[in-house]
Write a structure and sequence with these properties.
The protein is mostly beta strands and 119 residues long. The chain is 0% helix and 50% strand. Strands 2, 4, 5, 6, 9, 10 and 11 form a 7-stranded mixed sheet that branches. Strands 1-3-8-7 form a 4-stranded antiparallel sheet, with no helix packed on it. It is globular. It starts with a strand and ends with a strand.
Length: 119
């Protein structure tokens, strides 16, 4: 059973930066695509960014392109989300999730880390 644990959330002013981390355990990390998702109050969960098991061709939501960067360190079983030029609309609970390369759905989810962008 794969477990994922997020960290790095917090309160930041508009224009600031945060780096989220997600460590995975219980599986062969290089067999899993990883993704970051977020949910704002009163809204549905949305995909923020995803990265394949090889680290190639990351995908970003239009709203974060040019500001967020996803990366993975397979030696550390960790995926990161570097968030720059944060905006109030980036506020939400950020989840990390893992998807085995044989699967379509993300099956393993963390508990989430809160990101609040406010002055």
């Amino acid at each position: 059973q794969v477990q994922v644990t997020e960290s790095g959330g917090g309160l930041v002013q508009p224009g600031g930066s945060l780096r989220l981390s997600c460590i995975a355990s219980g599986g062969t990390f290089t067999h899993y695509a990883m993704g970051w998702f977020r949910q704002a109050p009163g809204k549905e969960r949305e995909s923020v960014s995803r990265i394949s098991w090889t680290g190639e061709n990351p995908i970003y939501a239009e709203s974060v392109k040019g500001r967020f960067t996803i990366s993975r360190d397979n030696a550390k079983n960790t995926v990161y989300l570097q968030m720059n030029n944060l905006k109030p609309e980036d506020t939400g609970l950020y989840y990390c999730a893992a998807r085995h390369k044989s699967r379509i759905e993300y099956d393993y989810w963390g508990q989430g880390t809160q990101v609040t962008v406010s002055s």
